[in-house]
Amino acid sequence: MSEDPWLVVGLGNPGPRYAGNRHNIGAMVVEAMAASAGATLREHKAGRAWAAEVRLGTLPGGLPGPRAVLARPMTYMNVSGGPVSGLAKFYKVPVEQVIVVHDELDIEPGQVRLKRGGGEGGHNGLRSISQSLGSRDYLRVRLGIGRPPGRQDPADYVLSDFPARDRTEVELLIGDAEDAVVHLAQRGLEATQQRFHVR
């Protein structure tokens, strides 16, 4: 296992107006992970982000899991790259150990999918991160929110809140995403894909 820390970034927009939006599911995951670890996300001096240093789970034998920095940019989604790059440089995190947690229109609601690299699929947050890191070879934990119904504009859809009737599903998705991040850092991409992609 690498001694380098992991950087786990949850994407979203700042402020109460956006807090419950579908586009903020990545930020919700990081906030839940911090709470589970008994940590508090605080403003970080290296960039425009809230961050906390934690351990990801527990290894066999009761040893603490790998070191990680949980973070969510304080910026709007489409300029997430600066904060991510700043934290990666500060903590000396190699791009291969950057994990970005984000919403994905082209995945069924409630599903978790993982990959390394590839395109951004029109996701402005990912595009900004790729540009700032100078690489697309970071890991993505992609959380399905599905396509908008009827002719609703995708931009309006992602910037709308999850309906109250979906609360249980959203909580389950956040829990699965937390598990996927920990599994990814402990056991690698292929093993984590095998576990979560069969669901």
Question: Keywords, please?
Answer:
EC 3.1.1.29, Rossmann fold, Pept_tRNA_hydro_CS, Pept_tRNA_hydro, alpha/beta, 7 strands, globular
Total domain modules? 1
Tell me how many strands there are: 7
Number of helices: 6
Per CATH, which architecture? Answer: 3-Layer(aba) Sandwich
What are the secondary-structure elements, in order, as H or E? Answer: EHEEEHEEHEHHH
Distance between the termini: 27 Å
Beta-strand portion reads 15-25%
Structural class: alpha/beta
Output the radius of gyration: 16 Å
Indicate the low-confidence ranges by residue numbers: none
Q: Calculate the mean pLDDT score and round it.
A: 94
> Under CATH, the topology is which?
Rossmann fold
Helix content: 25-40%
Placed side by side, the strands forming the largest sheet appear as: 2-3-4-1-5-7-6
What characterizes the major β-sheet?
7 strands, mixed
Q: Which geometry do the CA atoms define?
A: globular
CATH structural class: Alpha Beta
Q: CATH homologous superfamily, by name?
A: Peptidyl-tRNA hydrolase
Subcellular location: Cytoplasm
Pfam family, one: Pept_tRNA_hydro
Family: Belongs to the PTH family.
Site (Discriminates between blocked and unblocked aminoacyl-tRNA): 13
